């Protein structure tokens, strides 16, 4: 029942052929998919399953609670494609593009603000990071830093390291609430060349210039030890 996760290696891949392996948890399981499931603070992908003239709307994508390493595609409606049938999986391209741009932008924030992260949310309309610190943030300085890093067009790439390499470099993990998944023998890390390196399984752009114009929409003091930064796209 395991789902091959094509999005881990190519975030630009927007469709693939797949076979239905099961029903449950409100949706459909497939043997492979391009749809990213909710996790690591990033919202799940939406899209469609297509079989000839039939189309099923995928409203969200989640990790199965019952089947390890299996992804559930939540379907709008009660009728589901038959188990064993072949379908084409299509990602909502606009939603994926926003997730990729915002997620990479949060890595730029981590580079600008060297504090542990204790909360994260990446959607198609905004991104936010909560930093564990009591230091005040300068909104204008953060905006200028983001503008600079986007304009500098840093290459963005992922690679895999062993769990032993991560153990030898615990400082790579910036998040206090989400730890890299273990048990597979390797950890996926995201590198913004010359800017940031940390474990991350999300979808990203291939160059910071692709992020486009960002706006720091809000900075909040959420608690004595938490400062929140919210990002949007410039209109």
From TrEMBL:
Alanyl-transfer RNA synthetases family profile domain location: 1-235
Coiled coil residues, start to end: none
Pfam families named among the record's database cross-references: tRNA-synt_2c (PF01411), tRNA_SAD (PF07973)
Compartment annotation: Cytoplasm
Origin: domain of life: Bacteria
Keyword vocabulary terms for this entry: Metal-binding, Zinc
UniProt cofactor(s): Zn(2+)
Principal location listed in the UniProt entry: cytoplasm
Name this polypeptide is given: Alanine--tRNA ligase
Source species of the chain: Pelomonas dachongensis
């Amino acid at each position: 029942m395991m789902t091959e996760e094509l999005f881990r290696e190519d975030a630009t891949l927007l469709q693939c052929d797949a076979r239905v392996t099961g029903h449950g948890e409100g949706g459909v399981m497939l043997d492979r998919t391009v749809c990213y499931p909710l996790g690591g603070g990033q919202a799940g992908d939406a899209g469609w399953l297509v079989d000839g003239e039939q189309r099923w709307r995928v409203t969200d994508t989640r990790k199965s609670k019952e089947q390890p390493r299996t992804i559930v595609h939540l379907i709008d409606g009660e009728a589901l494609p038959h188990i064993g049938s072949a379908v084409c999986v299509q990602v909502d391209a606009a939603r994926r593009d926003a997730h990729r741009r915002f997620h990479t932008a949060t890595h730029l924030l981590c580079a600008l603000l060297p504090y542990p992260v204790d909360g994260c949310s990446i959607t198609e309309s905004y991104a936010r990071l909560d930093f564990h610190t009591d230091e005040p943030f300068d909104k204008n300085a953060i905006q200028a830093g983001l503008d600079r890093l986007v304009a500098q067009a840093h290459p963005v790439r992922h690679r895999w390291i062993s769990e032993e390499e991560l153990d030898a470099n615990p400082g790579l993990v910036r998040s206090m609430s989400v730890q890299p998944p273990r048990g597979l023998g390797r950890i996926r890390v995201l590198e913004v060349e010359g800017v940031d390196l940390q474990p991350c399984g999300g979808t990203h752009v291939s160059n910071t210039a692709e992020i486009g114009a960002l706006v720091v929409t809000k900075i909040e003091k959420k608690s004595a030890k938490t400062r929140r930064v919210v990002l949007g796209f410039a209109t």
